[in-house]
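This part of the workshop introduces the protein records we will be handling. The structure tokens are whole numbers drawn from a learned vocabulary of backbone shapes. The record below serves as our worked example for the rest of this section.

===
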Amino acid sequence: MNLRVSSCGLAFVRDESLHWYDYLEQRTHILSAGSENVIRWFLAGDKCIDEIAEMPGSAADGSTERVAQRLLKQCVLIPVGSSRDVRETEICESWEKWDMPTRAYHFSSRVTEETPIISADDDDEHLAAKHLVYPAPRSFLQNPGCRQIRLPDVSVDGWRHRDLIDVLERRRSRRSFGTSPVSLADVGALLHLAASPQPAADGEIAHLPGSVFRTSPSGGARHPIELYIYAKNIEGLEPGVYHYSPLAHCLEDLKRPTSTEQAISACLDQEWTGGASFIIFYTGVIERSQWKYPDSRAYRVLWMDLGHLSQTVYLLATSRGLNITFTGALKDESVESILGCDGNNEVILGASVVGSPQGEQYPA
């Protein structure tokens, strides 16, 4: 029986020990002494375990073979032609166009038949107890030392398209923009309806610590996403970088001078982004999601939250008669530098590029 090293596992060091994570079975094993040498020997080509005595440095007392047998049991080594071998081959062929960490995360975050599931009541009880020891993180970032620009109150005026079906049919990604500045009222209306907290409906999970409700859904009512504005051509607002504070309905001036060239570069050198009146950068405060969902699958939900929120922003911009396009093509480090994010606790997710319509009077 020939063996090979699994192509669906990761080796890493933790607490001064070598570990192997099998992301298909979602199991972590501590590798015993001598495992690294055996793995390297099998990486040179498929071999039979009976040939282990030929391995340079193989112990005469049979301990090296016992290491190999243990690696076989842990699925670090797998039999060539086995069902596991066939499955790994199919997976690697299907995912070959993306790098290995992508498929590793996908399969390690799957919910399988063996994944333990707890009831909603038990989960609520656990979170209530957890909140006493480890309180839920703040639901909104605030920058108390920043100058605040109060945004206009949202009124019934200014909505060029109010019918939902009409707005859905009009929604398009448009990468060309007019030269007219966008009004501060439009910016305020868009941000307020996209990001401000909304009252909970009866029977919802409002009793859980840290629960927030917006016009877009979010897994577990965590709403980990923050909105930042790079303002270039907004009437009555100085160009610059701002953070939107939903509780105060204001823009917090972060005092981070940013040129159009820097903004374009951060958007992966997409020249069309330079014609926008403003760019909304979305970040994710991962602690909010982690507090309720400690398993890695919640990272998938973070991106779903972004999709929900960005579509709401699309529809609001369309309703105000603005042109908009979402882009995920960003240089993370450049955006982190512009916004002042650390990239660890608050991560870059995407951006909505917004401007006045091209070739018509704005506002109409």
About this structure: The radius of gyration is 26 Å. The chain has a mean pLDDT of 93. The chain has two domains: 2-108, 147-355. The first strand starts at residue 2 and ends at 5.
